[in-house]
Structure formats: C-alpha cells, structure tokens
Amino acid sequence: xxxxxxxxxxxxxxxxxxxxxxxxxxxxxxxxxxxxxxxxxxxxxxxxxxxxxxxxxxxxxxxxxxxxxxxxxxxxxxxxxxxxx
Length: 85
Prior knowledge:
Helices cover 46% and strands 12% of the residues. The chain is α+β, with helices and mostly antiparallel strands. The chain has one domain. Strand 1 and strand 2 (22-26) form a beta hairpin. It is globular and about 40 Å long.
C-alpha cells in the first residue's frame, strides 16, 4: 500500500499504519484524490474488504475524530449488513 501511494503521489505527507487490525491512512487536507485512491487500493488488497473514510477535521485531534467517524461508518455498515465496500 505504501509503495502504491508513493508511486502515485510521490513524497507527500501521509501516514500509513495499522490499528486494531485495520489499515489506516492519514492524509492532510485536500485533494481527496489521496483518500479515494487509498480506499480503492485497500478494498482491492483486502479482497473486497469494507473501507470507510472519515472527513478531514481541523486541529491536532483531527486525525482521531476522523478515525472515529470512519469506525462509526464501518459499524453502521455492519449493522445494516451492507454488501457494498
């Protein structure tokens, strides 16, 4: 995943890591192109696993808020038994 992001976007500021068994990418502000590309790559790399993207949030705690928002979206998708990625 990291190599795919670097190949596509060069040496941009993003963080790629894992947390609680999930693949996590934090990319600063616009453009949404990085987040969209990451989501498509993550979906493909996990053989069709669910992907959620949190909205950009301001400030030092923005990444945490965005992560929690994405987790809530995943939880809602599970409860609704959605088939979409």
